[in-house]
Write a structure and sequence with these properties.
Blueprint lengths: L5 E5 H11 L3 E4 L6 H12 L11 E4 L3 H13 L4 E5 L1 H16 L5 E6 L14 H5 L6 E4 L3 H18 L3 E6 L7 E5 L3 H7 L2 H9 L19 H5 L3 H22 L6 E5 L5 E5 L3 H14 L4 E6 L1 E3 L3 H7 L6 E6 L10 H15 L10 E7 L8 H10 L9 E3 L24 E8 L4 H15 L3 E8 L7 E9 L12 E6 L14 E10 L13 H9 L3 E5 L1 H7 L7 H12 L4 H16 L4 H17 L1 E3 L24
Parallel strand pairs: 2-3, 2-4, 4-5, 5-7, 6-7, 10-11, 10-13, 13-14, 14-15, 16-19, 19-20, 20-21
Antiparallel strand pairs: 1-8, 6-12, 8-17, 9-11, 16-18, 17-18, 21-22
Helix pairs in contact: 1-2, 1-6, 3-4, 6-10, 11-14, 12-13, 15-18, 15-19, 17-20, 18-19, 18-20, 19-20
Length: 647
């Protein structure tokens, strides 16, 4: 194995990094949250960056996702390696071509940042409703659960499709994985090259449509032969799980990261098991580790390969001691006997028991549940709530977790205060205004921490779908161990309010731990600022014994020619207060990041930002917190007392 190299990027860039290097034609059409995968490929192609075979991939933007899939289908028939990126309604428009690509046994990978399909309303956020709508196409389906896995599985899917001739849909959760910035191990070109078999590439080339060796393809068939011909794909699908595991094993030899089609984590004698796929796997893994250390007999099965569904390997992944199983789906299929993964698992257990596969000898109680639709939060507290329910005598099937369903009473209760995060993980929340630069600065902060310390780092950014002018909340974590927390921070060590008026709109201090730090951007002077705070804010600062810092960031921005951009100033304050890096080292790292980020915009922009860094520390002050509340004003109630009960 090679010397490890780490990089701090988001899930979309991680996937595009691999897909670009193992393809020759990339047909794209932008749709949130997959757009940046195509944008990266387009940028690299424009710069002349070459793929594994020394050619520059052709990136072509079509007029719709249907066009992108059609272009992909055509390029594949010409013997080229081709891919595309999509989500949601975009994926649905590709389905007709996907049936053709799979029916013709054509190796290809489509990368999907899985997103909600519009039903009663449009949502740009993530769940599995789009990929589940495509499960009948004949594509293999590989689900990655983190930024690292997204990069790894992009390559494994490419190897598996070329060996099996079953095309693959590689998916990962939209926004939660696609836009999460994380420190991961970079895959080297040597590893990528070692995973691609040149003989299989030549076989794909030789299947290209050509007048030199004509073949008949794309015919219309009648009942006399269609059924028989349709069944001829069976050997490829039967072999696909073994070939995919073989690809995982080869990848493990090269990188040391071992994956299985179904990975079990937990107690060897677990009686309660959760089954799920996507980013929820990391949350479940983290929670199971926490609970098993306390003696709980629990476990989780992470589904990596959803199609073809390997019944035998699924059953063999379960411990012999299992008594009850909860299968969690991140989608809703109204009118079905159960959600897709749940139905597959119930069927697999019946088949497995009939064939005497695996260690399980008697049918466990199996229930299905829904979670996380439209990126609804999915936390360790909810995982524990499901495990607690599995102990009960009567189980609720087709439940929901994470909402309060007071209409049809499907929801399970859970302890909202439960947390598994260790004190070794530092957690920070930043409240900013859409387009004020806060998110960009925090992305740089993650890179600085990831690349200048031994810490692992994770950043996630909550946008309102109205984008510019709405609140953005940045969630930053860093610590000595890999971070398996794909959910929002509820217990922060540090909270920064970048816009003064937020202090009366958002209860941001409810999420800060006792003894934490609060940084406020305010025009008020150090000696006057305490009296400007609402009663509720003063009470929390006193009760939680918070350290309180202030800066007039807009004044510093104006004096250094930054206009309304306060991102660099607030970022500097964070590093100065948090002590993540020694102060001088942090300042130098911020200035290096400024040069990389703004260098192409001209020296004057760089100078304004570096001047702002220097001025920030001189203008930041710690406020001595009085021991009593002095304010007369209260935070306005979110809902008037006069509003009807419905509101």
């Amino acid at each position: 194995m090679e010397q490890k190299k780490y990089i701090t990027i988001d899930g979309n860039e991680a996937v595009s990094y691999v897909a670009y290097r193992v393809n020759e034609v990339i047909s794209i059409y932008p749709i949130t949250p997959s757009s940046s995968m195509g944008e990266w490929a387009d940028e690299w192609s424009a710069k002349g960056i070459k793929n594994m075979w020394g050619t520059v991939p052709t990136v072509v933007e079509m007029q719709s996702e249907g066009g992108a899939a059609g272009a992909m289908h055509g390029a594949l028939q010409a013997g080229t390696l081709t891919t595309t990126f999509t989500a949601s309604q975009g994926l649905l428009l590709m389905i007709p071509n996907m049936f053709k690509i799979a029916g013709e046994l054509t190796p290809a990978v489509i990368h999907v940042s899985a997103r909600t399909v519009a039903a009663h309303a449009l949502s740009i956020f993530g769940d599995h409703s789009d990929v589940m709508a495509a499960r009948a196409t004949g594509f293999g389906m590989l689900a990655s659960a983190s930024v690292q896995e997204a990069m790894d599985f992009a390559l494994v899917a490419q190897k598996a499709t070329m060996e099996s001739r079953v095309p693959f849909l590689h998916f990962f959760d939209g926004f939660r994985t696609s836009h999460e910035v994380s420190k991961i191990e970079l895959m080297s070109d040597k590893v990528i090259r070692s995973m691609i078999d040149d003989q299989l590439l030549m076989e794909h080339r030789n299947r290209a449509l050509s007048p030199d060796h004509p073949v008949l393809r794309g015919t219309a068939q009648n009942p006399d032969v269609f059924f028989q011909a349709r069944e001829t794909v069976n050997p490829h699908y039967m072999a696909c799980p073994d070939l995919t595991q073989k690809a995982f094993d080869k990848f493990a030899e090269l990188t040391g990261r071992q994956y299985s089609l179904f990975d079990y984590v937990g107690a060897k004698d677990a009686e309660r098991v959760i089954v799920l796929m996507g980013s929820g796997c990391d949350t479940a893994h983290d929670t199971v580790n926490y609970l098993t250390e306390k003696g709980e007999k629990v476990g989780v099965v992470k589904v990596r390969m959803y199609r073809p569904f390997d019944v035998r390997r699924f059953v063999e992944s379960l411990p012999a001691s299992v008594k009850s199983v909860a299968v969690l789906d991140r989608t809703k299929e109204p009118g079905a006997s159960g959600e897709p993964l749940y139905a597959d698992c119930v069927n697999a257990l019946h088949e497995g028991l009939a064939n005497r596969w695996g260690q399980v000898k008697t049918m466990p109680r199996v229930i299905g549940g829904r979670y996380g639709l439209s990126s609804k939060e999915f936390t360790p507290a909810m995982i524990k709530g499901v495990f607690d329910h599995l102990k009960e005598g009567t189980l609720k099937n087709h439940f929901t977790i994470g909402i309060n369903d007071d209409v049809t009473n499907t929801s399970l209760p859970y302890d909202h205060g439960f947390s598994t995060e260790p004190d070794t993980v530092r957690r920070a929340l930043f409240y900013g205004l859409g387009s004020d630069g806060t998110v960009g600065a925090n992305k740089n902060s993650i890179k600085i921490i990831g690349e200048n310390t031994n810490n692992y780092a994770q950043g996630y950014f909550v946008y309102d779908s109205k984008k510019a002018g709405a609140v953005t909340i940045s969630h930053l974590r860093f610590g000595p161990n890999p971070i398996q927390s794909p959910y929002l921070i509820s217990k922060a060590n540090f909270v920064a309010c970048h816009q003064t008026f937020f202090i009366e709109k958002y209860d941001m201090l409810s999420n800060v731990v006792d003894g934490g730090t609060f940084l406020l951007n305010t025009p008020a002077k150090q000696e006057d600022v305490w009296d400007t705070l609402p009663v509720e804010v003063q009470e929390k600062i006193i009760a939680k014994k918070l350290k309180f810092y202030v800066i007039d960031a807009y004044k510093v921005a104006e004096e250094t020619g930054m206009g309304l951009r306060i991102n660099t100033i607030m970022q500097t304050c964070y590093f100065a207060i948090s002590g993540v890096l020694p102060k001088e080292e942090a300042i130098n790292a911020i200035k290096d990041a400024i040069k990389k980020t703004y260098g192409k915009k001209g020296e004057s922009i760089v100078k304004k930002n570096t001047d702002a860094v220097d001025q920030s520390l001189a203008n930041m002050h710690e406020v001595q917190v009085p021991g009593k509340v002095t304010s007369k004003k209260h935070m306005p109630k979110p809902v008037s007392d006069k509003a009807p009960d419905y509101v």
